[in-house]
Amino acid sequence: ILPKRTSLSTKSSAPPSTYTKITSFPKTNPFAFQLMIATGKTSAADAMVQMVVEKKSVSEIDWKRNGIFVVFGCVYLGGFQWFIMVNKYRQWFPSMDRFAKLSLAEKMKDKAGIIDAMKMVLFDVCVHLPMMYFPAYYTTKEFVSGATWNPIDWVTDGCAKYRANMVEDLSAMIKLWGPSDCVQFVLPLHIRLPFRHFVSFFWTAYVSFTRGEPEAVEDADEPQPIKRRLSVSGVPGDD
Fold this sequence. Notes:
By secondary structure, this protein is mainly alpha-helical. The chain is 71% helix and 0% strand. The chain has 8 helices and no strands. The protein has helices spanning 18-28, 30-53, 63-92, 96-101, 104-109, 111-145, 151-184, 189-211.
């Protein structure tokens, strides 16, 4: 009896198309994808404020000021924030991954997950934003636009300006990120950082308008707060 012939021809899988590579990039390279979003978003938000709110033409854009947001968006929002909210949150809040996969109805019954979500909100608004984000932003601003190359001066001058603006900065932060975090930390994991970057676009626009311009500090011990700000309606207010 002759053995059955087996076909040696097999269908070779076609290489992925360019479209497939592009659409799968966020899933296969989540860190790189959000790093590009964080960098581009912060630069775009500042450029929008300069052109739309401050009525500057493209040739009048302050690219040094925009560079503050490029550096901060890449290093802090894209790098350090990923480290905190993905790597460290998994260690600090053990139910995060499991809770994120549940339906909304199941989440409402998961006490451990709800408690961890509340802890994440509290950590963000009580520790991360006031003690890490703002000091890092003001220090980065001094690095890009300051008059010295001494890192100690970047930190001391930046923190001095943060102290001068702290009440206004933290008040605005609580009003936006408190409610936003309550939504973010119950979303599925793959949506959380894109959602945060979406909200952060408008937050960055606010920071650009109120804190973007480089300012000189005549007396480092008694820095003067920046007076320009956005009113509740979003229109520049007179103070």
